Amino acid sequence: MPWHIRPYQPGDFAALYSLDQACFPPGIAYTKTGLRYFLKLDGAQCLVAEEGKHTVGFLLAEENHPLAHIITLDVAESHRRHGVGSALVKEMETNLAARDVRAILLETAINNEAAVAFWKRHGYRIEAVLKRYYLGRLDAYEMRKVLPGADAPGGPGPKPKEN
Ligand SMILES: CC(C)(COP(=O)(O)OP(=O)(O)OC[C@H]1O[C@@H](n2cnc3c(N)ncnc32)[C@H](O)[C@@H]1OP(=O)(O)O)[C@@H](O)C(=O)NCCC(=O)NCCS
Fold first, then answer.
1. What is the domain partition of the chain in residue ranges?
2. ∠ CA(125), CA(91), CA(162), 5° rounding?
3. According to the model, what pLDDT value does residue 156 have?
4. Are strands 103-109 and 138-146 parallel, antiparallel or unpaired?
5. pLDDT digit string, tens, across residues 40-60
6. Cystine design at 35: which of 16, 30, 70, 107 (Cβ 3.0–4.6 Å)?
7. What is the pTM of this model?
């Protein structure tokens, strides 16, 4: 495996911002301010996938015990379908479970077929359709995974991605 996963460092910011701009359409990709805000949250957890000096993916989540919320998962187009996203999710789930997080929530646009397939493959289930969640016109699925060994807790997660 030529890439490896490590915790976020402040020097990664520019690369993460560029990758997010490349991964999402205008209006759904984060502004610099938005990305900085989420990275600085008290419960922010961010993992970076790196190949040499190149950032090829990252996963940003917020822990809000006993829940966590995936804010974004971004994999460079050149590195998709090589297990980068899966490795990031598995490591984040392991870290969160070790901190006694019971369930993980996320939102994804219902027309993002790759993401919906990816999350289903990782055991995330559709909980609800959030009408006009993105850009005031694009519906999203709210998805949830109860981590092994946990009962299903309730409660909504914070809202990711600025509209
Ligand atoms: C969704 C995304 C993170 C997946 O990352 P990835 O590193 O390519 O995913 P993996 O290689 O770990 O894929 C694991 C499995 O997910 C499913 N999957 C991933 N991409 C898929 C696609 N385009 N179509 C169908 N299934 C897909 C498959 O089951 C895949 O297993 P397989 O390759 O053995 O068939 C990536 O496509 C991405 O960054 N997209 C743009 C940003 C985005 O939409 N992020 C999610 C926002 S919620």
1. 3-146
2. 60
3. 45
4. antiparallel
5. 999 999 999 999 999 999 999
6. 30
7. 0.93
pLDDT digits (tens, 9 = 90+) for 80-102: 999 999 999 999 999 999 999 99
Cα–Cα dist 14/5, whole Å: 18
The answer to whether 30 and 58 are in contact (CB under 8 A) is no
Contact 38, 160 (CB under 8 A): yes
82 C-beta closer than 6 A to ligand 1: yes
**Phi, psi at residue 122, to the nearest 5°?**
-95, 15
Is 102 close to ligand 1, i.e. is its CB under 6 Å away? Answer: no
Give the residue among 75, 9, 79, 8 at the shortest CA–CA distance from 48: 8
Which class would CATH give 3-146?
Answer: alpha beta
Q: What is the pLDDT of residue 150?
A: 72
**pLDDT exceeds 90 at position 163:** no
Greatest Cα-to-Cα distance within the chain, rounded to the nearest angstrom? 41
> Which atom, in ligand 1's list, is nearest to the CA of 84?
7
Give 138's strand partners.
134
74 lines ligand 1 (CB under 6 A): yes
Report how far ligand 1's centroid is from the alpha carbon of 25 (Å). Answer: 17
